[in-house]
Amino acid sequence: MPVDIDARVVSNTHLSHDYSVLGLAAPEIASLAEPGQFVMIKPTAGVDPLLRRPFSIFEILRDSVGTPTGISVLNKRIGAGTSLLYDATPGSHMGCLGPLGRPFEPVTPPAEAWMVAGGVGLAPFVTLGEALRLTATKARLFYGARTAADLTHVDLFERLHVEPVLATEDGSRGTRGFVTGPLEVALSTTPRSTDVRLYACGPTPMMRAVAKLAATYGRRCDVSLEQVMGCGLGGCYSCVVLTQTPSGSPHFVRSCLDGPVFDATRILWDALAH
Questions:
Q1: Sign (positive/negative) of CA torsion 204, 206, 212, 218?
Q2: What is the pLDDT of residues 70-100, one digit of tens each?
Q3: Is the dihedral of CA 145, 151, 157, 161 positive or negative?
Q4: Domain ranges, ordered by start, for the chain
């Protein structure tokens, strides 16, 4: 069951003019969280902003003996709420509800895990990378962004023994173009006998392209949808997603309850907002 706490800000690291990593003292949430789950954060006690905002759990913070003490979230300053998180000072407090949602299902050897991230879509993959390391599962991170400055925490994944494969739209680091380029090369050159599971999170067009590549090369793909959410508990119906049942019939589900992680073949991508 999720818990609702008044979390103290323990750190706020600015990565760039827009990106930051916010650390929160939340041992109750950290001890329960599974890879790919999220929290709902309200940065102020007032009515502006009125609603909480969803953030994937980025890291599980631990003390010197490994006991979970809190979580961090990867934030991109876009609107009022994310600006408040960007400007938050250590010692301040904010409401934090979680952990929420359906988590990733980490594969185990001999299977391989290929994570595909675009921009802040990197957020749910640190916890997945940690879970994969515990089972010595071979893992790669296909990570794309507009420029090299937007590629953050690559060294963190290297420490988790996750092989980074990078791409930037301007060619400033890694392959020039979208991250789906090197992903397709890897899929086309990997024997079908190798068991590979794809995990994707990022802009909808990217996830749709990854899902199409997975289908083309006969690979399972799980996507973590970045839907707008008002409550995170299924009450407001702001995060509905049109999926298909096993029989092929369309069916609306709530991303906060049935997701945010979905088998990509369930999603009716033409109906998903970009």
A1: negative
A2: 999 999 998 888 999 999 999 999 999 999 9
A3: positive
A4: 3-100, 112-227
Query: Among candidates 103, 110, 109, 6, which has minimal Cα distance to 52?
Result: 6
- Residue 262's identity, in one-letter code, is F
Pairing of strands 162-168, 240-244: unpaired
Q: Which residues pair with 242 in a beta bridge?
A: 252
- Residue 13: the pLDDT is 96
Rounded Cα distance between 96 and 241, Å, is 24
Q: What pLDDT digit, counting tens, does each position of 204-214 carry? A: 999 999 999 99
Full-model pTM: 0.95
Q: pLDDT value at position 47?
A: 61
> Average pLDDT over the chain, rounded to whole?
94
Question: Is the pLDDT confidence value at 191 over 70?
Answer: yes
As a whole number of angstroms, the distance between CA 89 and CA 43 comes to 11
- Give pLDDT tens digits for 249-274: 999 999 999 999 999 999 999 988 65
The domain 3-100 belongs to what CATH superfamily? Translation factors (2.40.30.10)
The class that CATH gives domain 112-227 is alpha beta
